[in-house]
């Protein structure tokens, strides 16, 4: 796997081997070792800028991961290369089916008038969420966009909490205050849920910075938490994306930038919006590996994720992973989805990630079909239960209106009577005049 | 003590150690107004010290009493109630507050352009990077939106960052993060994540810096729910507010002013933290309430000199907390004087003064003998030419005229 990821060193690109080897220890590059402060002194910068960078070294060979796996399969003489164990494949299957079933139920509930506003469904992209998040620890961070239901579920937020949040009930993960586009969980380290594209990427970068800070300043030696930031193809033309790629590579932050390239930003085709549509190429421009992977194949995503997460945990810095994927539904439930070519949709439907995994499992005799059916049934029950729970939960009372505006409610100030406004027990109902 | 700024005027500051919370400052204490009594002194222009003579019962907050006029007061006279203290400039006071908080809590860090090796464009973070390291005093690339967002993310995951905008105007680029993330995430996450960031930087009209470097962003950030805004004006309150902002669990925007960084004052040696929500009584008076903040405080105090000579007795309050307003101190003053003049450097349209006028009219209408008057800067991009720039902001002569008009 190591060969699939190449990087350009910031100061001095190394010569890159071109043959693929499967040993994970075979790192393609030497991380820049700074013995003084990790930014390097100005002396160092001045010195190395004098070195001519020969153009032949600047070229970085980035091999698409899909090819390497195929290569490996062809090369291995034994019958099958089993990339996962039975337990792992059950986990992956269950996670993806949960995501799919949940989103389908969301669509139903939306059309029945149980949830409102903008709801963005993840059908078809489950491989990316499962492929990455399944490998994370509970302390690792995930930062998402408005298409965040399945990221929340994969990270461990209970389906009940997410469904309640969507129904706007007080038992939701954000007490009904966030909604579909703002899923947060402190317990599961889900940092949101952002409505504007790109604005979650700096937040993710900050979480990665905090992780590095803990290790180096606060001396918490075992702090190797990584952050995974998910965002789409449209975001990759946004300034915040580039600014954060720069900072993450500069400071070697433990972050993985995952691009869920589903080729469409509402009705704007990626090809119409981007001068160079190959997003993975933008990684090496900032000094980090850029990898392209088939995002409809959870096993391939998982392999790349392992390497990227490993890099981050070892302190070697960020990785940019572009996952080619597709959303089976429109941008949101309000999107009529008329622009996309039916042939394109049909093509990707044949690459349904859940079907693909199921096929792989059956073909390799990892798990019986009956067991898979049992998982599907179990998931259906979980979803039913989530809906029932959400239905039965109370709506937020008026007193919740101004709660949580400030962590320290003294921020509402001092009223004319000399008392802090928050001292009035009815204040949070919004009755006090400010 | 005297702080002299190129002929604008000066203010003397008195500190009375008994009236502050030093280490006893608890965020959980809510009510600490009425019980506090301080020995306060009024220093007259001739340097005579008169214990409490002008202060009747109205000196409610009793916390800090500052004389109207630019008195060359004997430092020993003003500090008989407290230990000698030490003299420093405003930017040094900010740095002192920052350093004390960084010593106290290792999670406090500074993020901004040129804060580290360069020591800060206005030297507020001078010498901190060698002491604390490049990670705690982080030199960022020029990417305001992203590094402010980074500070938000770091705050959500346990750190307490201070973001420095090299000039407040640059933070316009960070508006997305400040409005959407700083202000809102605590709420949209249902209270799960706190964002204890401090965003600070110099703003205001300087000396012919041109339109874009002379912006007053307090009006733009006003409406963002979930943030607090404070403006410092003296070394004493600069240090106190800096410390309070860092310790606060809320996101706080601390507005400094380019022209006030070299103000000199003697501040206490012992630790003190000020309240983020309270206003500061600068000069008690009887005839009219003048509400101001930041640099305009000094224009007001210079006008007050003239007004006193003409026989007026203005009460000057530095509102300090731009959001939320301290309606108690302001209200008590209005109930006494019945006339209000607001003097601010914000633009006329939609500025802090506009909000304050509305708040006063809503809450204290019955106590007013005259409409609230608000003197603000002209609605113009600050011109480069010195003469034009002078007419953009409120000058002491205009303040005197306004007071005379209101007190007819």
From TrEMBL, chain A:
GO terms for biological process: pyruvate decarboxylation to acetyl-CoA. GO terms for molecular function: pyruvate dehydrogenase (acetyl-transferring) activity. Residues 365-392 form a coiled coil. It catalyses: N(6)-[(R)-lipoyl]-L-lysyl-[protein] + pyruvate + H(+) = N(6)-[(R)-S(8)-acetyldihydrolipoyl]-L-lysyl-[protein] + CO2. Residues 95-396 form the Dehydrogenase E1 component domain. Transmembrane segments: none annotated. Its EC number is 1.2.4.1. The keyword Oxidoreductase applies. InterPro entries: DH_E1 (IPR001017), PDH_E1_Alpha_Subunit (IPR050642), Pyrv_DH_E1_asu_subgrp-y (IPR017597), THDP-binding (IPR029061). Its cofactor is thiamine diphosphate. The keyword Oxidoreductase applies. Tetramer of 2 alpha and 2 beta subunits. The pyruvate dehydrogenase complex catalyzes the overall conversion of pyruvate to acetyl-CoA and CO(2). It contains multiple copies of three enzymatic components: pyruvate dehydrogenase (E1), dihydrolipoamide acetyltransferase (E2) and lipoamide dehydrogenase (E3). This is Pyruvate dehydrogenase E1 component subunit alpha. It comes from Protea cynaroides. The lineage of its organism: Eukaryota, Viridiplantae, Streptophyta, Embryophyta, Tracheophyta.
Automatic annotation (TrEMBL), chain B:
It catalyses: N(6)-[(R)-lipoyl]-L-lysyl-[protein] + pyruvate + H(+) = N(6)-[(R)-S(8)-acetyldihydrolipoyl]-L-lysyl-[protein] + CO2. One of its GO terms (cellular component) is chloroplast. Residues 88-263 form the Transketolase-like pyrimidine-binding domain. SMART domains: Transket_pyr. One of its GO terms (molecular function) is pyruvate dehydrogenase (acetyl-transferring) activity. Pfam families: Transket_pyr, Transketolase_C. Gene3D superfamilies: 3.40.50.920, 3.40.50.970. It is an enzyme of class 1 (oxidoreductase). Keywords: Chloroplast, Metal-binding, Oxidoreductase, Plastid, Potassium, Pyruvate, Thiamine pyrophosphate, Transit peptide. The keyword Plastid applies. It is found in: Plastid, Chloroplast. Its cofactor is thiamine diphosphate. Its EC number is 1.2.4.1. The pyruvate dehydrogenase complex catalyzes the overall conversion of pyruvate to acetyl-CoA and CO(2). It contains multiple copies of three enzymatic components: pyruvate dehydrogenase (E1), dihydrolipoamide acetyltransferase (E2) and lipoamide dehydrogenase (E3). Tetramer of 2 alpha and 2 beta subunits. This is pyruvate dehydrogenase (acetyl-transferring).
């Amino acid at each position: 796997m190591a060969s699939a990821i190449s990087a350009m060193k910031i100061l001095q690109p190394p010569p890159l081997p071109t043959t693929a080897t499967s040993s994970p220890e075979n790192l393609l590059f030497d991380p820049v070792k700074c013995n003084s402060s990790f930014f390097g002194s100005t002396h160092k910068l001045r010195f190395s800028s004098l070195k001519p960078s020969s153009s032949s070294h600047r070229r970085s060979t980035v091999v698409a991961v899909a090819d390497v796996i195929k290569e490996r399969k062809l090369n291995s003489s034994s019958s099958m290369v089993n990339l996962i164990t039975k337990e792992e494949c059950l986990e992956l299957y269950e996670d993806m089916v949960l995501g799919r079933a949940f989103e389908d139920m969301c669509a139903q509930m939306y059309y029945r008038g149980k949830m409102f506003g903008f709801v963005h469904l993840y059908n078809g992209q489950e491989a990316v969420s499962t492929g990455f998040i399944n490998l994370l620890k509970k302390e690792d961070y995930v930062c998402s966009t408005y298409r965040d239901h399945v990221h929340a579920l994969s990270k461990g937020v209970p389906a009940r909490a997410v469904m309640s949040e969507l129904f706007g009930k007080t038992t939701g993960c954000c007490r009904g205050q966030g909604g579909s586009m703002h899923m947060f969980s402190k317990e599961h380290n889900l940092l949101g849920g952002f409505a504007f594209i790109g604005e979650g990427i700096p937040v993710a970068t900050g979480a990665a910075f905090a992780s590095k800070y803990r290790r180096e300043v606060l001396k918490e030696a075992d702090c190797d938490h990584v952050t995974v930031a998910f965002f789409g193809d449209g975001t990759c033309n946004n300034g915040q994306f580039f600014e954060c790629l720069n900072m993450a590579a500069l400071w070697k932050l433990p972050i993985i930038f995952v691009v869920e390239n589903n080729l469409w930003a509402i009705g704007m085709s990626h090809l119409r919006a981007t001068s160079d549509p190959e997003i993975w190429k933008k990684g090496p421009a900032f000094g980090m590996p850029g990898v392209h992977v088939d995002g409809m194949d959870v096993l391939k995503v998982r392999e790349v994720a392992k390497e990227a997460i490993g890099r981050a945990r070892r302190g070697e810095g960020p990785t940019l992973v572009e996952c080619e994927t597709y959303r089976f539904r429109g941008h949101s439930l309000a999107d009529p989805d008329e622009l996309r070519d039916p042939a394109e949709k049909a093509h990707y439907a044949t690459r349904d990630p859940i079907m693909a995994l199921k096929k792989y499992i059956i073909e390799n005799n990892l798990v019986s079909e009956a067991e898979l059916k049992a998982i599907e049934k179990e998931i259906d029950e979980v979803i039913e239960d989530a809906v029932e729970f959400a239905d039965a939960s109370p709506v937020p009372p008026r007193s919740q209106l101004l709660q949580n505006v400030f962590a320290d409610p003294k921020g509402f100030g001092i009223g004319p009577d000399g008392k802090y406004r928050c001292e009035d027990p009815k204040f949070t109902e919004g009755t006090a005049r400010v | 003590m005297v702080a002299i700024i190129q002929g604008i005027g000066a203010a003397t500051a008195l500190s009375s150690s008994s009236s502050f919370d030093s280490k006893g400052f608890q965020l959980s204490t809510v009510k600490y107004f009425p019980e506090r009594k301080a020995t306060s002194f009024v220093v007259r222009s001739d340097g005579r010290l008169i214990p409490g003579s002008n202060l009747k019962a109205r000196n409610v907050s009793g916390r800090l009493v500052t004389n109207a006029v630019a008195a060359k007061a004997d430092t020993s006279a003003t500090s008989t109630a407290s230990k000698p203290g030490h003299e420093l400039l405003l930017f040094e006071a900010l740095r002192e507050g920052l350093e004390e908080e960084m010593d106290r809590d290792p999670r406090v860090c500074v993020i901004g352009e040129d804060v580290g090796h360069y020591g800060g464009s206005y030297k507020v973070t001078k010498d901190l990077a060698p002491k604390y390291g490049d990670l705690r005093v982080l030199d960022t690339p020029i990417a305001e939106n992203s590094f402010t967002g980074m500070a938000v993310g770091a705050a959500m995951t346990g750190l307490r960052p201070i973001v420095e905008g090299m000039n407040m105007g640059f933070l316009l680029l960070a508006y997305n993060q400040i409005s959407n993330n700083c202000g809102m995430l605590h709420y949209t996450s249902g209270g799960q994540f706190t964002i204890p960031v401090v965003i600070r930087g110099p703003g205001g009209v300087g000396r012919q810096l041109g339109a874009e470097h002379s912006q007053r962003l307090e009006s733009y950030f006003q409406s963002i729910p979930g943030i607090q805004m404070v403006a410092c004006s003296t070394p004493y309150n600069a240090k106190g507010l800096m410390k309070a902002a860092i310790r606060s669990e809320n996101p706080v925007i601390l507005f400094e002013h380019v022209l006030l960084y070299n103000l000199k004052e003697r501040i206490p040696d012992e630790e003190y933290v000020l309240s983020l929500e309270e206003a500061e009584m600068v000069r008690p008076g009887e005839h009219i309430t003048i509400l101001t903040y930041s640099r305009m405080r000094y224009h007001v105090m210079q006008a007050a000199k003239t007004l006193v000579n003409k026989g007026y007795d203005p009460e000057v309050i530095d509102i300090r907390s731009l959001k939320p307003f301290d309606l108690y101190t302001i209200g008590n003053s209005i109930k006494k004087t019945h006339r209000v003049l607001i003097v601010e450097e914000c633009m006329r349209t939609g500025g802090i003064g506009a909000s304050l006028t509305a708040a006063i009219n809503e809450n204290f209408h019955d106590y007013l003998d005259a409409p609230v008057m608000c003197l603000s800067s002209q609605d113009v991009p600050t011109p480069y030419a010195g003469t034009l720039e002078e007419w953009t902001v409120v000058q002491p002569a205009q303040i005197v005229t306004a007071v005379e008009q209101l007190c007819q």
